[in-house]
Specification:
This protein is an alpha+beta fold and 167 residues long. It has one domain: Quinone Oxidoreductase, Chain A, domain 1, CATH 3.90.180.10. It contains four helices and seven strands. The strands form two sheets. It has a five-stranded antiparallel beta sheet with strand order 6-3-4-5-7. A two-stranded antiparallel ribbon has the order 1-2. The longest helix has 14 residues. The chain is globular and about 65 Å long. The protein starts with a strand and ends in a 16-residue tail after the last helix.
Length: 167
């Protein structure tokens, strides 16, 4: 499926594309399930290249689950045939196709207890949660932790803990 490049009536159109080949640090995933975010057809990486030029015919769906079909020459060949899930680069063609390419650092082994559909629904939600907790809240959390540390730097004794004078 490809983006029809229309901002007035964005849609996906069926198309046949060649099977991509993994480069260094990449895996070729045979896609069993893919997640497509509703607003993805309007995202900058869907309509532009990384360098800022116009992009046409983008394949959306950047979260997926499937089986590793091939790996770049620098990766462990034992990954071939194993089930993985993850996400790929926003500027790369996505997983609304039979195959997609992903950096090995953006995938992990699919838990056996999850179906491919369940696993494909995880990556962007997990990334959003991570960003919220660690990118957005980390400043507030650090500030709070610093306050706690300062508060307890000097021992503070309660009245009943103070020994009477002269004893």
């Amino acid at each position: 499926m490809r983006f029809n490049d229309s901002f007035d009536a964005p849609a996906l159109v069926a198309d046949t594309v060649p099977t991509p080949h993994p480069g260094r640090g990449e895996m070729l995933i045979r896609v069993y399930a893919a997640g497509v975010t509703r607003t993805e057809l309007r995202w900058y990486p869907t309509t532009h290249t990384r360098a800022g030029g116009k992009r046409t015919g983008a394949i959306p769906g950047h979260e997926f689950s499937g089986v590793v079909e091939a790996v770049g020459e620098d990766l462990d060949q034992n990954h071939i045939g194993r089930e993985f899930f993850g996400m790929n680069d926003w500027f790369a063609d996505g997983a609304s196709a039979e195959y997609c390419i992903s950096a090995a650092t953006s995938v992990t082994v699919k838990p056996a207890r999850l179906s491919h559909v369940e696993a494909a629904s995880v990556p962007i939600g997990a990334l959003t949660a991570w960003q919220g907790l660690f990118d957005r809240l980390s400043f507030r959390l650090r500030t709070f932790l610093k306050w706690i540390c300062r508060r307890f730097e000097k021992p503070r004794l309660l009245k009943h803990e103070i020994a009477p004078q002269g004893s």
